[in-house]
Amino acid sequence: MKLRSYIIALSIIVALVLQIVPMPLTVDKFRPDWVLLVLSYWALALPNRVNVGVAFFIGIVLDVLMGTSLGVHSFALCVNVFVLAANYQRLRNYSIWQQSVIIGTLSALYHLLVFWLQHLQTDVNFLFNYLWPVLPSMLMWPWVFALLRKVRRQFRIT
Amino acid sequence: MNTMFTRGPSIVSRLALALFLSVVLIFVDHKYDGFASIKVYLNSLVSPLQYVASLPGQILSSSAERFTSHQKLLEDNRLLTLQAVIMSEKLQRFELLQQENTRLRLLLGSPISAPTEKMVTELMAVDNNPFSLQIVIDKGAIHGVYEGQTVLDDKGIVGQIMEVGTTNSRVLLLADISHAIPLRIARNNVRLIANGSGELDELLLEHVAHSADIQVGDMLVSSGLGDVFPEGYPTAIITSIVLDESRPFAQVTATPIAQLDRLRYLLLLWPEDAPTRPIFQDYERALETVP
C-alpha cells in the first residue's frame, strides 16, 4: 500500500537518472528522452494525476540538472504534456505504432522548443545532431508503454 | 478514474499559467541572474540524483581497476617513476628560475607573483545538454570553491566554476559558446580574446587584425587580464588562419590544449586575491606538504 502511492514519482525519478547518466560521446547523442517518455505515458494513462503542473515541476528539476536557465525545459515539457493530456481519449485508441509516431513528433517539438529558447539567450547554431534523440525515443515508446502499463496494472494505480 | 468532474482549474488555464511562469523564470534567470543564491540550494537538492547517475560509471571503472593485471601495474609504475624523475629535474631548474625571477622583480621594483593554492578534484558528471558544455566536479562550497574559479587539467585551462553547490559544483568549459577568455601569444605577447564555439575542440579568435603577427601552431597562454583567470597558464594552440581581405578581420581558430573530451582529474586554483580559501580534508593537506 505504501509503495503504491509512490510508483509515479519513482518512475519519474528513474527517468531523470537515465536522462543524466554519463555516456560515451558517440552514444550520447542517441539518448532517448526518458523523462518525456515517462511523463507522456502517465499523461495518457492518468491525465487527472499527471498533467501540466507535474511537467512544470519536473522541467525545473531537469533545468537544474542540465544547467540551463530555469524554465527552459519546463516550458517545453508543459507544451508536450498539454498536447497529450488534452487529447488523451483520442490518442489512447491509436495503435502503438501510431502513438510512437506521435511521440516522435512531440519529441522533435520538444527539442526544437528547447533549442529556440536557448537560441534567444545565446546564439547557439542549429545542428542536425540535436534531433537525433527523436528516433530512439520513437523506438523506445512501445517498450516504455508496455513496461509502465504492466507496472500500473500490477499496482492498480488510479 | 473520475475525469468528468476534475478538480481545480481547466487544463488550458493550467498550461497558460505554467508557460507564463516558465517565461518569467527564464527572463529573471537569464537577464538578471536572480536565482544565484537559490540555485546553490537547488543544486544541493538534486545532487543525490547526480550521485546515483554517476554510480554505474564508477562501478565500471572501479571493477576495471580491480581486474588490471600485475603486468599492467608494473608497466604503469615504471612509466610513472620515469615521469617523476623527468619532472623533478624540470622542477629543480624551475626553482632556480623562480628565485632568479624573484630577485629580478625585486630589482625592478615590480610586485612578486604570489603563490596559488591548489586542490585536486574529480569529474562527477558530464552534461548531455547539447547547447552548453558543462561538467560537474566533486568539490563544492564546503571545500571553499567559489564562483568564477579557474579549473585546470594536467595540460592547460579547462574552464571556470559557474555554479557552486554544497558538495559539488558546475564548471563551464572554455569551448562553451557563451564563454570567452583573454589570452596572449606566448611568442610575442599579442593579446587576443578566444570565444568558445560550442564544439569541444575549437575556439574562435575574434577581432584579429589582418596584420597581426600570428602563425599556425602558436601557443596561447592566459593573459591575466579580466581578473578571472590567473596569468600564464597554457590554454590553446592556433590551428588555422584564413586571411580574407573582403572581411574586416582575419578568421582565426584555435584548439584547447586541455583534453576537454577526456577529463578525469582536475585542479582548482586559489590565487592570493581569491574570495575564499581552500578547506582541505586531512589526506589532501598531507599531499600538499609533499616537497
Automatic annotation (TrEMBL), chain A:
Pfam families given in the database record: MreD
Principal location listed in the UniProt entry: membrane
InterPro entries reported in the protein's UniProt record: Cell_shape_determining_MreD (IPR007227), MreD_proteobac (IPR026034)
Topology in the lipid bilayer: Multi-pass membrane protein
Transmembrane segments: 6-27, 100-118, 130-148
Alphabetically ordered keywords of this record: Cell inner membrane, Cell membrane, Cell shape, Membrane, Transmembrane, Transmembrane helix
Record localization: Cell inner membrane; Cell membrane
Family as reported in the entry's similarity comment: Belongs to the MreD family.
Cited function: Involved in formation of the rod shape of the cell. May also contribute to regulation of formation of penicillin-binding proteins.
Protein name stated in the entry: Rod shape-determining protein MreD
Organism of origin: Aliiglaciecola litoralis
UniProtKB/TrEMBL annotation, chain B:
Keywords of the record: Cell shape
Keyword Secreted: no
Functional summary from the UniProt entry: Involved in formation and maintenance of cell shape.
Source organism (scientific name): Aliiglaciecola litoralis
Presence of the UniProt keyword Zinc-finger in the record: no
Residue intervals of the Rod shape-determining protein MreC beta-barrel core domain: 124-270
Protein name: Cell shape-determining protein MreC
Database matches in Pfam families: MreC (PF04085)
Family: Belongs to the MreC family.
Alphabetical list of Gene3D superfamilies matching this protein: Rod shape-determining protein MreC, domain 1, Rod shape-determining protein MreC, domain 2
Domain of life where this protein originates: Bacteria
